[in-house]
Write a structure and sequence with these properties.
This protein is an all-alpha fold. It has a domain at 29-90. It has helices at 4-11, 34-46, 52-59, 63-75, 84-88, 98-139.
Length: 147
């Protein structure tokens, strides 16, 4: 029996060392052009009731794709989209909106109120300890003259 290494030595070919190949490479997302999206949405909408799912199966799409693409088309944004992921993103709101300012003011007010409540509870705890101390000291003293 001839080993592969001896065969490679005899033939002058080099045998590459073991190459590790990832058995399940990370899948890449599909991207769709705006033209493709509009053609598929039009074909889907033109298909009779029983044939709509056949269009989806043939193209390997889901109904959610059609919903997103038709909503984007209705909003007038489909002509400028590069792929489906951008149509699903919501526009970013500015961080300094009126609602944010109102919530920050409310947060500051509630934090001040919490600090005031904690201080009052701390004082009440100290008063309670003081009153207990005074009560114990009066119990051990001589009886009052009124009795």
């Amino acid at each position: 029996m001839i080993s592969s290494s001896s065969f490679a030595e005899d033939s002058g070919e080099s045998v590459p060392e073991a190459v590790t190949v990832d058995p399940a490479p990370r899948p890449s997302r599909r991207t769709f052009t705006a033209r493709y999206k509009s053609l598929i949405v039009a074909e889907y909408e033109a298909a009779p009731h029983g044939e709509k799912s056949a269009v989806l199966r043939r193209e390997g799409l889901y109904h959610s794709h059609i919903r997103e693409w038709s909503a984007a088309r209705d909003a007038g944004a489909l002509s400028g989209l590069a792929d489906a992921r951008t149509s699903a993103r919501r526009p970013h709101r500015s961080a300094s909106g009126p609602q944010t300012d109102r919530l920050r003011a409310q947060n500051a007010r509630l934090a001040a109120q919490l600090a005031q409540t904690r201080a009052a509870l701390d004082i009440m705890g100290k008063v309670h300890v003081l009153l207990e101390t005074l009560s114990e000291s009066t119990d051990t003293s001589a009886p009052s003259p009124r009795s």
